[in-house]
Fold this sequence. Notes:
Elements: E1 4-8, E2 11-15, E3 22-24, H1 38-49, E4 54-57, H2 59-65, E5 74-77, H3 81-88, E6 92-95, E7 101-106, E8 109-115, E9 123-127, E10 130-135, H4 140-146, E11 154-157, E12 162-165, H5 169-174, H6 184-190, H7 193-205, H8 211-220, H9 229-240, H10 245-254, H11 258-261, H12 263-271, H13 273-291, H14 298-319, H15 324-339, H16 347-362, H17 370-375, H18 380-393, H19 398-406, H20 412-420
Parallel strand pairs: 5-8
Antiparallel strand pairs: 1-2, 3-12, 4-5, 4-11, 6-7, 7-8, 9-10, 11-12
Helix pairs in contact: 6-8, 7-9, 7-10, 12-13, 12-14, 13-14, 13-18, 14-15, 14-16, 15-16, 16-18, 18-19
This protein binds adenosine-5'-triphosphate and magnesium ion.
Adenosine-5'-triphosphate binds near residues 58, 153 and 191.
Amino acid sequence: MRHYTTKGNGTEQKNLMDPQLTQYKANQHQLPHKEIAGHAKKIIDMLIQAGFDAYLVGGAVRDLLLGLHPKDFDIATNATPEQIKSVFRNKCRLIGRRFRLAHVYMGNAIYEIATFRGGSSGDLLLKKGQIIRDNVFGAVDEDALRRDFSCNALYYDINSQTILDYTGGVKDIQQGQLKLIGNPDSRFTEDPVRMLRAVRFHSKLGLHLSDELKKSIIKNRNNLKNVPTARLFDEAIKMFHCGNMLHAFDVLIEVQLFEILFPAADRIIEKDKKMKSLLYHAFKNTDQRLKNNQSVTPVFLTACVLWLEFLLAYQHIINKGKNPHDALHTATTLVMEQQRPYLAIPKAIQNGIRQIWLLQLRFKKMSGKPVYSTLHHPRFRAAYDFLLLRGQIKTDLSHQTEFWTNIQTMSPEGIKSMIFGKHIKHKKTTPEL
Ligand code: ATP
Ligand code: MG
């Protein structure tokens, strides 16, 4: 029996799992070989030609077995990052310090090539059981045990069309189970992001998340606070766009991870069912857009989640007598500051959110020239969707939603008479949102 052992900073962990190889030959599995991207096959071929082993691995093998279309094709090999670089030269870039890997550019896509992890010597850094850096290279069976879930640890040999399964992943997929490889507490400690991945794969793939894993997530949830906040933002967006965020939201609340990512929003939805329902509407809307192959942006759902605390801050500032524009900017800055210790929202996304919120104020002005600048604002579309969403829980927005819906299909003359007509009363708008 081979144990995978990680050493570093005096900490040692054993992952008591025996890698037992089961092979599924071409006639023993349903993986649609034709759906593998030609470039991925080419990259694997080139590595093999250069004398290395290389397999398709991870999400692509999993998704193909589940009858889904993979969003990317990851590759695993025994070639070191430098050796990969020497095979692909200027088509290859080595990235990551924490987890060094190669990006190979082919066609319009980037293919991620990871060297098998495992073994006992190399560049490994642990801090209180959390892997800070892992560049210890090893053999394929060791690599399998380093992966997170059994469904993600399947290796597909494109030449023999055989699946190598060291952790029972094929059976788990067939039985609809999301199984973490090894001991949950130590695997979640090693890399707390796996807890978010667990919720995402459970919701996205419909694989069952056991009570044992849920309990372990609740127990280890605070370790997420030790993960770089930029990585947490990326994970939050992957979750938002997993295609079943409506369900993921409930699970995130159940396993108490929502409060780790968005503590202020979590406190609000606990008391205010209307606000919670706004998020349900938002998530449902994004899930639907993804089903329809419509575009989605990280700005939208982040703006929705942060809106709850923004509204409170905005109202508080207005009550102190500030004008709506100043209040809006001050409240936006405050919300971003409050969120920063938990999730690092990139500046460009923050700006997008600010614009969507600013347009909510502008939507109140439905006469005169300002209507044109609102209508032609680059964020009009997203802000309009946001308005419709707010309209789902706030009935007194119906006048605005009707106005901004109708105006989009009107002729220039129609718009002109609607916003400049003699019957129009140029009312001063109230500051409330
Ligand atoms: P998708 O790309 O659809 O989000 P994926 O499973 O391919 O899902 P990636 O982040 O692309 O996810 O990672 C590729 C593979 O690398 C995973 O399938 C898994 O085997 C391994 N992996 C990724 N992140 C981790 C992690 N935090 N811990 C252990 N293994 C991981
Ligand atoms: Mg992937």
